[in-house]
Design a protein that fits this description.
single chain, Rossmann fold, six-stranded mixed β-sheet, 12 strands, globular
């Protein structure tokens, strides 16, 4: 397992400070959900982990080394990043999309390695989209398309996967399909999944760890039972909620806005 550490991190967009003095550490192959209201800094934190945003102060380390001093290929072989609503060329096939996951392993001339074809087939199989391999990505449903993007990230053969709102715009069936896929990848291949997610019940059911963020600060960090509480939801989201225990998981029932 590769260790990621965020130390005394200040994150900003121009002059606007979004996150100040953040400390976080990821050192186990677990599913981590980052929750919080819109504009709370969730996606900003994820971008900093993925080296998409350079901190104003502090450091993000990968196995003890500043992530911004490491070669791009080294980082890409350690973690894969799936942004919210990714886009692909209209005519690209699923197999070709997934093959882009092998880019960090290609040689100077851009050629695939000997095992790339096998890894691409493996990623298609693991995400259950083998039958779509030669279909244009644009012809897939939302859930199928998201599985294709996850297959591309999986083909990178990293130990860490970062996802920004992976179930956005999907119906409830496909939301569960994606969440169960991520759970399976974590359990079967020890992949650390760090994701920003809005659905509190998905976070509760599928996560080992939940991080609640408000105005760039960590309000709570722990198990779903420790974090998704009536008090925390009131503080972070400004809502009244009832928390129930059901089928081995907690369930959040929002009741209204705090006034």
């Amino acid at each position: 397992m590769k260790t990621i550490s965020l130390e005394s991190l200040d994150l900003s967009y121009g002059d606007r400070l979004v996150v100040k003095g953040l400390d976080l550490r990821f050192e186990r192959p677990e599913i981590v959900s980052i929750i919080g209201a819109n504009g709370s800094g969730k996606s900003t934190i994820l971008k900093s982990i993925g080296r998409l945003l350079r901190p104003r102060k502090g450091v993000v380390t990968l196995n003890g080394k500043d992530i911004h001093t490491l070669p791009a290929k080294t980082v890409a072989r350690a973690m894969s990043i799936l942004p919210q609503s990714p886009h692909a060329p209209d005519d690209i096939t699923v197999k070709d999309l997934v093959s882009f996951g092998r880019t960090p392993y290609r040689n100077f001339f851009g050629n695939n390695g000997d095992d790339d074809a096998e890894i691409i087939r493996w990623a298609l199989k693991e995400t259950n989209i083998e039958e779509f391999a030669f279909r244009p990505v644009q012809t897939l449903s939302g859930g199928e398309r998201q599985r294709a993007w996850i297959a591309m990230a999986l083909a990178q053969k990293t130990g860490i996967m970062l996802l920004d709102e992976p179930t956005t715009f999907l119906d409830i069936h496909h939301q569960f399909e994606i969440m169960e896929l991520l759970q399976r990848l974590n359990e079967k291949h020890n992949i650390t999944v760090i994701m920003v997610i809005h659905d509190l019940n998905h976070a509760a059911k599928f996560s080992h760890r939940v991080i609640a963020v408000k105005q760039g600060n960590i309000v709570r960090d722990g198990t779903p039972e420790e974090v998704i509480t009536e008090a925390t939801l009131k503080e972070v989201f400004g809502i009244k909620a009832q928390i129930l225990s059901m089928n081995g998981s907690i369930v959040c029932i929002p009741c209204g806005v705090c006034r």
